[in-house]
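Schema walk-through. Below, the input block comes first and the output block second. Nothing else is stored per chain. Lengths vary across the set, and this one has 160 residues.
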Amino acid sequence: MKRNKRYSILALLLLAIPSVWAQDVAPVRNILQELQTDVPGRGVIRIYQSPAIAAVVHMQTGRGVVDGGNFQTLQGFRVQVYSGNAANSKSIATDRAAQVRAQFPELESQTIFNAPFWRVQVGNFVTREEAQAFLDRLKEAFPSFGKSMYIVRTTVKVPL
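--- output ---
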């Protein structure tokens, strides 16, 4: 009986070893890197592309490079400082984005056109609390923007 118990434990340990090794894998690579990997017996593929195309491919796979550092895309929050569809909405959106960028240059701001609306969104926040803290700072810095500022849930870029 003791012998069977020992063999059972040994068998479980031997089955667990491959799963431990499997966790020590290479970093995540995108499809373009995978295609260019030299494999004996397979042809050689070289892809020449602009950095803009590489950024789009990385964003679609959920990983990418910004300013030489890595980021990951995930669901998070931004503060929307403007949304409008009036005749002059594009100029208002551009002006607000410039004002916010001048006051908070460390945060990313986006001017988005999704017909018929122009929107300006600021920041890449993982939690609603972070976004709320920044919204409070924005309300202090730009009281004239009033109630047009609020938190939106969207895809954000977070450094790895």
